[in-house]
TrEMBL record:
Keyword Metal-binding recorded: no
Protein's recorded name: DegT/DnrJ/EryC1/StrS family aminotransferase
GO-annotated molecular function: transaminase activity
Transmembrane segments: none
Cofactor or coenzyme needed: pyridoxal 5'-phosphate
């Protein structure tokens, strides 16, 4: 079976995890702090706050910009459902904006059409690693959270994605380029926001458990606001530190394979770089022409019959039962989610495996 993705994991990650276990410190501790610094440096952000997932990082980010009950937050429907769900966690309402047909991302124009007096924030997603045009969206004057779940190592206007964001959220799920199993990160330019996010991820505690254990004096912590248990473990962070050293190599390989797909699949719309940046090709999607002989689901079934694991394209949250009753005019979103599929792309993929994928698609035409 050719998988849709396979994490790049080796003996170094296993050794790092084992060392964390042998240290006796397996919860959030010194390795988490080291990973936060290393990741924030890599993406050009001021501060990193490790979390249990990108979803929990998004929830914290929304709280940091003051989103609460009765507010609206503009989000793309064309995104994993966690983007919209995080808004609901705050008691707010996600308002869906359409996306650009080429990048799959919201734009200043699509966001502006759905902004209302109740809009408190915008979540701009770097869909499948393709950077959004953050500057134009930020210029609308509404707080912007960058959902960079898929975008570690992508670039925007010559800088790493996330470097220009007030707040960004990241994922280390195994479908991403680097992984800690589960896990996420919030990055921000604000030291005050980073400090509050660290408190909120640890039950609202004024002094972290790691600081209390390291202290030679008794410390009695305080809880000034309702917090959450959104912590990352030192075992995960140890793996993440090794993974981070692999990121540039992983991106180079994925970009080479993506370029080869583009050569082998003429006539299809595909994931590609926007004019203002470079994608890490976290996923490689194609969009079937409207006159394609078979539909997207039939092509997925044919690929599966040939031992090839592909996926439907990016989901549209507003079409899921959880968002039944939502009214939204999203023609581009609905076409992309109906006509697109994600092809296998992973670090060790061979040209022979890629040729197998392409041959099945060619036979379907």
């Amino acid at each position: 079976m050719i998988p849709v993705i396979r994490p790049v994991l080796g003996d170094e990650e296993a050794a790092a995890a084992a060392e964390a276990v042998r240290s006796g410190w397996v919860a959030q501790g010194p390795r988490v702090a080291e990973f936060e610094r290393a990741f924030a440096d890599h993406v050009g952000a001021g501060h990193g706050v490790a979390t249990s997932s990108c979803t929990t990082a998004l929830h914290l980010a929304l709280l940091l910009v003051g989103v609460g009950a009765g507010d609206e937050v503009v989000v793309p429907s064309l995104s994993f459902i966690a983007t919209a769900n995080a808004v609901r966690y705050c008691g707010a309402t996600p308002v869906f904006a359409d996306v650009d047909a080429v990048t799959g991302n919201v734009t200043a124009k699509t966001v502006e059409t759905v902004i209302t007096a109740r809009t408190r924030a915008v979540i701009a997603v770097d869909q499948a690693g393709v950077p959004c045009d953050l500057d134009e969206i930020t210029a609308l004057g509404v707080p912007v959270i960058e959902d960079a779940a898929c975008a570690a190592g992508s670039t925007y206007r010559g800088r790493p994605v996330g470097a220009g964001a007030e707040i960004a959220a990241w994922s280390f799920h195994p479908r991403k380029l680097i992984t800690t199993g589960e896990g996420g990160m919030l990055t921000t330019r604000s030291g005050d926001r980073a400090r509050r996010a660290r408190r909120l991820r640890e039950h609202g505690m004024s002094v972290s458990a790691a600081e209390r254990h390291a202290s030679r004096t008794a410390i009695v912590e305080e809880y000034s606001e309702t917090g959450f248990n959104y912590r990352m473990t030192d075992i995960q962070a140890a793996i993440g530190l090794v993974q981070l050293t692999r990121l540039d190599e992983i991106i180079a390989r994925r970009r080479a394979l993506a370029a080869r797909y583009q050569e082998l699949l003429p006539g299809y719309e595909t994931a590609r770089d926007p004019a203002y940046g470079e994608t890490n090709y976290q996923s490689f999607w194609i969009v079937l022409p409207d006159d394609h002989p078979i539909g997207r689901d039939a092509l997925l079934a044919r690929l599966a019959e040939e031992g090839i694991s592909a996926r439907r394209g990016i989901m549209a949250a507003h079409l899921e039962p959880a968002y039944a009753g939502t009214t939204a005019d999203l023609p581009v979103t609905e076409r992309l989610t109906r006509r697109s599929l994600i092809l296998p792309l992973f670090h060790e993929m061979t040209h022979a495996e890629q040729d197998r994928v392409v041959s099945v698609i060619a036979e379907a035409r």
